[in-house]
Write a structure and sequence with these properties.
This protein has 603 residues and is of the alpha+beta class. The chain is built from eight helices and 34 strands. It folds into three domains: 90 residues, Purple acid phosphatase-like, N-terminal (Immunoglobulin-like, Sandwich); 365 residues, Alkaline phosphatase D (PhoD) (Purple Acid Phosphatase, chain A, domain 2); 84 residues, Immunoglobulin-like, CATH 2.60.40. The strands form seven sheets. The protein has a ten-stranded mixed β-sheet with strand order 5-2-1-11-10-9-23-24-25-26. The chain has a seven-stranded mixed β-sheet with strand order 14-15-16-19-21-20-22. Strands 3, 4, 6, 7 and 8 form a five-stranded antiparallel β-sheet that branches. α2 packs parallel to α4 and α3 runs parallel beside α5. The longest helix is centred in the middle third of the chain and has 15 residues. It is globular, with a radius of gyration of 24 Å.
């Protein structure tokens, strides 16, 4: 009640900023970006958050604890984590020594301020009767509301969320399918290239309320696709990378580093940014996550290129392809699930492939994979795919021999094709069992020892905050069949969990004084050579005086530029520091007789 009254007073007096679909919550300060968990195993899970410091040159110690109950009366693990600007103040802990198939709750605290409580779940071992996975891909923040994320969160019946890529987009504001009816824009406004740009874009995404809630309540298993770096990326370049944008390898590493900082993914070893890895769901399923984008992919070619059928062309690279063959051959689980970015099934029009960015552009490697499945009697092969913004159910075949099935999820918000012309495609491609090209949504994959079923759920709209959704199509494949059959009954599986989802606020929620006027969310980059970008919430800077203070105390006024102020109540301010000598400085902001200091380093 005290918190409610405090909030009410803030709203009545107008001193709190208004909440939008993309804005931080006062009640989790300074952990404004929420909490997340990911890469669950039977005895461990990654937990994640990000702390917003008052001093962006500081090194901070954050305490974490993990318990079997949301009130933390039975704490099973706790410790401290050190973070600083080199990690963009993100926090990522691999919590070990946990029990299998068990819900856990976790939180972070710093000097008496607490994050939201997160809920996560470890993987099962032994005989398992059912698992349910929510499959998502392609979330363009500027294209619409993330109603898909809210719809999944409200179900409370999935064991994990599989994000199959395009968690963010790299484009400049307005450059890719902006939705003029909504109040959502990302930061920075320019195309992201530098490490600080990628970090800032992830920071903007983690302001989304629906995204934060889904991260808070379910473990995620993530891979990148192309837009985490640049459109139609491959190992040595990308369609959306030009010579005037600098060295591709540097840009690629910037995107990879920010991905590992901002998402709850477990690195193979310190400094390693390979994302192909596997997860065992008891004796029921082995989930094999691939990198079909940056690990070993050669540059895409057109359908008419003489290189298309070159037997040396690869989408995975030799190391990953050999690893994949070994995973498939040695798996003892009933189902072998491939978490895969781009479509594996063939799509031909007048005898020619129309999507050579997918496996159709690398037919020799796909043939080698199919040969491996057949020659080693590997059955129950299931491919889960994103990337293409549309819905597909596909029988995978080696000539006329069934080798598996593929379920392709629609996008969260990114545009499909305005007209649903799937019937034309299925006429020439009878292995395409279902094609829907216009709707946004997600797929629920449900596994039992007898069958796998995919259910396509579509949200009613992305133009307003409304999580209403409908299951419009379902297909299943029986064990050993490697072929899809339509059904009118969505899967139920183990049903909703008897463990409730968690409130978005901290259990010790208080109102941060920083949010009464203006809150600094990030300073990018720091250290910096030329400019500082200041990401903030509240849009109150217009009456502020700005000063730069050198280490000797000398104070000079400065004039910032406001190059992005948006409807999300966030602002991005740039300050030119190119004239400064190298060293340590403080940025002083004076407003209504009160001052705020930020530390930064000029290289």
């Amino acid at each position: 009640m005290k918190i409610f009254i405090h909030l009410l007073l803030l709203l009545l007096t107008g001193t709190a900023f208004s909440q939008t679909s993309v804005s931080p919550s006062e009640c989790i300060a300074p952990f404004y970006h929420g909490v997340a968990s990911g890469d669950p195993l039977s005895d461990r899970v990654i937990i994640w958050s990000r702390i917003t410091p008052q001093d962006f040159s500081a090194t901070l110690s954050v305490h974490y604890q993990v318990a079997t109950d949301p009130n933390f009366t039975n704490v099973v693990s706790e410790g401290n984590y050190i973070t600083d600007a080199s990690k963009d103040f993100t926090i990522k802990v691999d919590v070990t020594g946990l029990e299998p198939n068990t819900f856990y709750f976790y939180e972070f605290d710093h000097q008496g301020a607490f994050s939201a409580v997160g809920r996560t779940k470890t993987l099962p071992i032994g005989d398992i009767s059912n698992i349910r996975l929510a499959i998502v891909s392609c979330a363009n923040l500027e294209a619409g509301y993330f109603n898909v994320y809210n719809a999944i969160n409200e179900r409370n019946d999935v064991d994990a969320v599989l994000m199959l890529g395009d968690y963010i987009y790299e484009y400049a504001t307005g450059d890719y399918s902006p939705n003029s009816t909504i109040d959502r824009v990302w930061e920075p406004e320019q195309e992201i290239i530098e490490l600080s740009d990628y970090r800032l874009r992830y920071s903007s995404y983690h302001m989304d309320n629906a995204l934060r809630k889904l991260h808070q309540n379910y473990p995620w298993i993530c891979v990148w696709d192309d837009h985490e770096t640049a459109n139609d990326a491959y190992a040595n370049g990308a369609e959306n990378h030009t010579a005037d944008e600098g060295d591709w390898d540097i840009r690629k590493e910037n995107g990879k580093r920010a991905f590992f900082e901002w998402l709850p993914i477990r690195p193979k070893s310190t400094g390693n940014t390979q994302i192909f890895r596997s997860f065992e769901f008891g004796n029921l399923a082995n989930l094999i996550m691939l990198d079909t984008r940056l690990e070993g992919r050669e540059e895409q070619v057109t359908a008419s290129s003489p290189l298309l059928n070159d037997t040396s062309r690869t989408i995975l690279g030799e190391e990953q392809f050999n690893w994949l063959k070994n995973e498939l051959q040695n798996s003892s689980q009933t189902w072998k699930i491939l978490g895969n970015q781009v479509m594996m099934g063939e799509i031909n029009v007048f005898g020619n492939p129309i999507n050579t960015d997918g496996w159709d552009g690398y037919p020799a490697e796909r043939q080698r994979l199919y040969d491996h499945l057949v020659q080693n009697n590997i059955s129950n092969f299931v491919v889960a795919t994103g990337d293409i913004h549309t819905s597909w159910a596909i029988d995978l075949k080696r000539d006329n021999t069934p080798v598996g099935v593929e379920f392709v999820t629609p996008s969260v918000t990114s545009p499909g094709i305005p007209l649903n012309v799937g019937g034309i495609l299925t006429f020439e491609n009878p292995h395409l069992k279902y094609v829907e090209l216009t709707k946004r949504g997600f797929v629920i994959l449900d596994f039992t020892s007898q069958k796998v079923q995919g259910d396509w759920y579509y949200v009613n709209t992305i133009d307003a905050q409304n999580s209403a959704n409908t299951c419009e199509k379902s297909y299943y494949s029986l064990t050993g069949a490697n072929a899809l059959v339509s059904t009118n009954t969505p899967s139920v599986g183990h049903g909703a969990f008897n463990v409730n989802t968690i409130d978005p606020c901290s259990r010790f929620a208080t109102i941060s004084e920083l949010l009464l006027s203006e809150t600094i969310i990030g300073v990018y980059p720091n250290p910096s050579e030329q400019i500082l970008h200041i990401q903030s919430v509240g849009n109150q800077w217009k009456d502020t005086k700005w000063f730069i203070i050198a280490s000797d105390g000398k104070e000079m006024s400065c004039q910032p530029q406001f190059f992005s102020i948006d409807h999300n109540n966030t602002a991005l301010t740039t300050i030119d520091i190119s004239m400064l000598a190298s060293g340590d400085y403080r940025l002083k902001m004076v407003q209504n007789g009160q001052s705020r200091l930020l530390s930064f380093i000029k290289r």
